[in-house]
Amino acid sequence: MKIGILSKEDYRKRTITIAKGEYKPRKGEPKVWFESMESIGQILSGQNQKLLKLIMDSRPVSLTELEKTSGRKKSNLSRTLKTLSNYGIVDLVREKGTVRPVVKATEFTVELSL
């Protein structure tokens, strides 16, 4: 997954020019944007990396199963997984009244322009 870093103002300008049709994103440009390296660090923290690895290795069929294997409370897992899902890192598959987390992104490249 290619990640870009832009200030809020630059991201807003970019979004507006795309919406107006004045700019078409090039193939290979990041689709996920953060405001800073610190914000990436929060999302891809060591704890979240361990969680992603656990999901890949154990392939839990539900959040309840993941709660048992991870030792983290379901409410904490739900919040974290929703955030990771919003960035396209995890997919939350709804099946038979449960939610099954699936890791979508396992490699990350950061594009930063000063």
Write the layout of secondary structure elements.
Blueprint: E1 2-5, H1 8-19, E2 32-34, H2 37-43, H3 46-58, H4 63-70, H5 74-86, E3 90-95, E4 98-103, E5 109-112
Parallel strand pairs: 1-2, 1-5
Antiparallel strand pairs: 3-4
What would you say this structure looks like, in words?
By secondary structure, this protein is of the alpha/beta class. The chain has one domain (2-112): Orthogonal Bundle (Arc Repressor Mutant, subunit A), CATH 1.10.10.10. It is 46% helix and 20% strand. It has helices at residues 8-19, 37-43, 46-58, 63-70, 74-86; strands at 2-5, 32-34, 90-95, 98-103, 109-112. The strands form 2 sheets. A 3-stranded parallel β-sheet has the order 2-1-5. The chain is elongated, with a radius of gyration of 16 Å. The model has no long low-confidence stretch (mean pLDDT 93).
Question: What attributes does this structure have?
Answer:
Arc Repressor Mutant, subunit A; alpha/beta; 114 residues; three-stranded parallel β-sheet; elongated; two-stranded antiparallel sheet
Q: How is the biggest beta sheet arranged?
A: 3 strands, parallel
What is the 3D shape?
elongated
pLDDT averaged residue by residue? 93
What's the architecture in CATH terms?
Answer: Orthogonal Bundle
Give the proportion of residues in helices. 40-55%
Considering the protein shown, what is the CATH homologous superfamily?
Answer: Winged helix-like DNA-binding domain superfamily/Winged helix DNA-binding domain
How would you sum up this structure in a few lines?
The chain is of the alpha/beta class and 114 residues long. The chain is 46% helix and 20% strand. The chain has a single domain, classed as Arc Repressor Mutant, subunit A.
